[in-house]
Amino acid sequence: QNAILRIWKAFGLKPHLQDTFKLSTDPFFVEKVRDVVGLYVNPPEQTRALVLCVDEPTERRWTARRLPEGRASASQKSQVQALERTQPLLPMGPGQPERRTHDYVRHGTTSLFAALDIATGRVIGQCHRQHRHQEFLSFLRRIDKEVPAELEIHLVMDNYAVHKTPKVTAWFQKRPRRHLHFTPTSASWLNQVERWFAKITEERIRRSAFRSVAELEWAILDYIEDNNRNPKPFVWTASADLILGKVQAICERINPSGH
Question: What are the tens digits of pLDDT across the range 226-241?
């Protein structure tokens, strides 16, 4: 047993850990990666344009409480659940971790629309009880109100159907100063607002209980206000070549023959 442990340590092996990955099948994966990453590493001057990362967190990857393994919804829904635990949280003590019940009561859902300014870290956010093209258009109008009209806006978004409905497309066609940059399919990690979703989940949502949707929405909007009082942008360091090289390495491990 000691010999096995020494071998694992010598080669940096950790068999008790597992991770997941998903390769995008987007035929324009390379072009989209270069386009989006280009905005991150060489953004336009703030006096001329803003780069906003826009998304709505899906139920599978971001909820008021992460569901246990195997209990996630089979379909992705852009909603945040207002979940209340059946018993009060037990705070940590000497030799005891914080403890909370695994079961909860559902009190409904809300949909969060968020836009992260990559240069400043400020967030424009809006909650809606439904998630349709009407609500997305309302959020786009909110962005227009908060951004000076003379600035061009580059919006980084995923390929969610709501982002590409005919009415949304027509809205953008009437506003040539709004430029769309779509991430590849199955590559939401390329959207910087995803990191902000993880941050609000860890700092405000996951360890809380919400007795109503209104209480959940208040907590979200309060967090956004607090974020914007002292915003901090994320630092993007990965070049497009580095990302594409890592993807290529995974593909070669999956299919060494190259076919």
Answer: 999 999 999 999 999 9
Contacts of residues 58-63 at CB distance under 8 Å and 24 or more positions apart, as own/partner, are 59/109, 61/188, 61/197, 62/197, 62/198, 62/201, 62/205, 63/205
Q: How far apart are CA 233 and CA 55, in angstroms?
A: 17
Q: Check if the beta carbon of residue 193 is closer than 8 Å to that of residue 227.
A: no
State the Cα angle at 223 between 222 and 227, rounded to 5°.
120
Q: Exposed, middle or buried, 32 (CB in 10 Å: 0-12/13-18/19+)? A: buried
Q: Could you give the maximum distance between any two Cα atoms of the chain, in Å? A: 68
- Classify residue 160 as exposed, middle or buried by CB count within 10 Å of its CB (0-12, 13-18, 19+): middle
What is the DSSP code (8-state) at residue 93? B
Please tell me what DSSP assigns to residue 163.
Answer: G
User: Mind listing the pLDDT tens digit for each residue in 97-151?
Assistant: 766 665 555 556 788 899 999 999 999 999 988 888 999 999 999 999 999 888 9
Predicted TM-score (pTM) of the model is 0.78
Cα 5 from Cα 9, distance rounded (Å): 6
Q: How far apart are CA 205 and CA 195, in angstroms?
A: 14
In 3D space, the residue among 34, 35, 36, 43 whose CA is nearest the CA of residue 233 turns out to be 43
H or E element in which residue 227 lies? helix 213-229
* Angstrom distance (rounded) from CA 257 to CA 6: 33
